[in-house]
Amino acid sequence: MFKMFLLSVLFVAHRGEYESAPEGSLAAFRVAMQRGDDIIKLDVCETKDGIPVISHDVSLSRVGGWDVKIADVTLSEIKEKCILKPSRADSQWKSERVPTLAEVIAETKDAPGFWVDFKMFNPAFAERVLEEFERADIPLSRVSVATFSVPHSSI
Beta strands of the chain (E only): which ranges? Predict the structure, then answer.
């Protein structure tokens, strides 16, 4: 006989609430906050000019139709040239852009928890990302770091 012990269920906003708004957009994270998600998962990439931005992929081709790696372009180039694809054809969000980590933190700072996933892990960049949370007065006890990538020095 199988017994299931349910202690608690946490709802994770993976890429924000990307079924409702373009994935990884500020709109998707706003919806996650409105729905009361427990954990905001932040897929963090570094731009050419060292700015942490939110993107599940290291390239902008799938979500923005622009075939470039985030690490090869500056934040201003991304903001100028990349509009995130709406999740649905009838979506009300037709001009969402790739947000910076700071922009998303400003929208979600009251979330119970954060999960940071580095798409290309680099210890110095990781420190800068964690400093963004500290600048926003978010205790690091509310931040988890889990990544599937290998540190650059190991490649």
Answer: 12-14, 39-46, 52-54, 113-118, 143-145
Q: CA torsion sign, 89 to 99 to 44 to 49?
A: positive
| CA-angle at 111, arms to 109 and 115, nearest 5° | 95
Task: Please report the domains of the chain, with CATH numbers, ordered by start residue.
Answer: 13-142 (3.20.20.190)
Q: 13 with 41: CB under 8 angstroms? A: yes
Ramachandran quadrant class, 118 (left: phi over 0; alpha: psi -120 to 50; beta: rest): beta
pLDDT tens digit string along 110-154? 999 999 999 888 889 999 999 999 999 999 999 999 877 665 554
Using DSSP, how many helices (H) and how many strands (E) does the chain show? Answer: 5, 5
- Those residues of the chain that have pLDDT short of 50 are 154-155
Query: What are the catalytic residues?
Result: 14, 56
